[in-house]
Structure formats: structure tokens, C-alpha cells
Amino acid sequence: MPKLQTVSVITVVYNGAATLQQAIDSVLSQDLQDIEYIILDGGSNDGSWEIIQSYQHRLAFTESAPDKGIYHAMNKALQHCTGEWVAILNADDFYAHNSVLSQIQACFNASKADAVYGDLVYVHKEDTSKILRYWKSGTFKRSRFLWGWMPPHPVFFLRKSAYTQFGVFNETLKTAADYELMLRMLYKHKLKAVWCPGVMVHMRAGGVSNAGLQNRLRANMEDRKAWTINDIRPCFFTLLLKPLRKIQQYWQRPTQ
After folding, report:
1. What is the pLDDT of residues 189-236, one digit of tens each?
2. Measured CA distances, 89 to 112, 148, 214, 240 (Å)
3. What is d(CA 22, CA 97) in angstroms, rounded to the nearest whole number?
4. What is residue 38's three-state secondary structure?
5. How many whole angstroms separate alpha carbon 143 and alpha carbon 137?
6. 104 and 81, same structural domain?
7. Any idea what the CATH number is for the domain that residue 236 is in?
8. Residue where a domain stops, chosen among 66, 95, 124
9. 106 lies in which domain range?
10. Which of 95, 127, 151 represents a domain boundary (last residue)?
11. What pLDDT digit, counting tens, does each position of 97-125 carry?
């Protein structure tokens, strides 16, 4: 029987050749042992698959095939995970340093939590040394969801057993499936979560849900649906506060 890995890292990509190699290198340079790295390509035509193939000998599973969107691709990847816990790194993001995953593992070991999360910085799309926003997650309290809080998904690490017990990403949602998953796991099912302070991921600015008023309104409607499909109720102000929380991220700066 094959040895179970400590962590399964997932990257899904579609035409992300410009940033994919940096994401991959940031995973493969981690100092944690026993990393199972899974990369799914959605049928790219920009050279992404060729980049993935050049790392083939260091990857646990790869595939290039059309998918039904990012969350469908993530769910496909989860089927191949054998790690104790799962990390998801987008193809245009990268880990902040080479000890990120070992720090998260230490937090899991010390806390015996179901989920661990850290902090994140948004960086300029081309000049990744330029920090645009700092998302300091803060200590976990389940009630904070009612005040518009959520941890950043790229630095949200969840035990594989939680996906098995409580389900994967809801593919009916186009932009809020990550929010719905965290709401379901941490608020509805009351899984134990702990904050591991420190910047873990650099995320390039320019997400779809934040681009323009129309997209922001659409995202807000999906956020509302995330509560409805779980048969739980937010406060009347919850979904108004959620986007407003981002404002403070523009003047905060990471301390490390």
C-alpha cells in the first residue's frame, strides 16, 4: 500500500503559461517533505501543458483535458489527493517563501485543527514586488462570518477528511464556491480552524469577482446564495460588510 503524503497541493490552470512556472517553482522549492503535487490543465493552447510536462518527473498526477470551469477542475483534482491535508494554489499565485507548507504542518500538529489559514498579499500583475493590498486574516471566531469575515481561500488549508465528510466545491456557483465551502465547513459544520499568522501567498491582483460594479453585484448575489443553499441565515448587514472589509486592506502593510 503506498505511503500517504503529508499534503496534497493542487494547481489548476487554463492558458496560464505567463505565471504557471513561478507557481510550480514555489511549490517544488518548499522545505516540507512528502508533498504530493497535482496539476490539472483545462486544455490550454498557450504552452501551459508543455511547462507542466517539463516538471513531470516531480509531479504526482497531471492531466490536460477540457473542464467545466475552475471549481469542476478543483473537484477533479481532489479525487486524486491522498494527503492528510490539501492546499490549493492558483496558477497566477505563488508561495511567499519556501517554509510555508512546513509552517502550516506545524500549525496542524500543534492545534489538531481541521483547517489552518494564514495571511495574503495582493501584488501587481507584472511587478510582483509591488504590494497593493494586505489581507490579515486574524484569529478565528465562528461568529465573524456574520460580520462579513472570511479567510482568503489561497491560504486556506483543509484536512482531506473534511472534503470526504462534508463535500467538495459547489459547481453551481461561478465565483463564490470557495466562500461557500469555507462557510459550510467552518460556520455550518463548526470545524475547528486556527490562524497561522504571516504572509503565505502572493496573489496577483485582477480577480473576476472584483472587476467592475456588475461583477461585484453578481458576486454579492452568489455570496447570498452560499448561505441559502446551506439553510443558514446571515444578518441583514453581513453581505454588505463583506466587500467593505476589503477597504482596510489597502492601507495595511505586512509586518513580516
Report:
1. 999 999 999 999 999 998 654 555 677 688 889 999 999 999 999 999
2. 23, 24, 27, 28
3. 12
4. strand
5. 14
6. no
7. 3.90.550.10
8. 95
9. 96-256
10. 95
11. 999 999 999 999 999 999 999 999 999 99
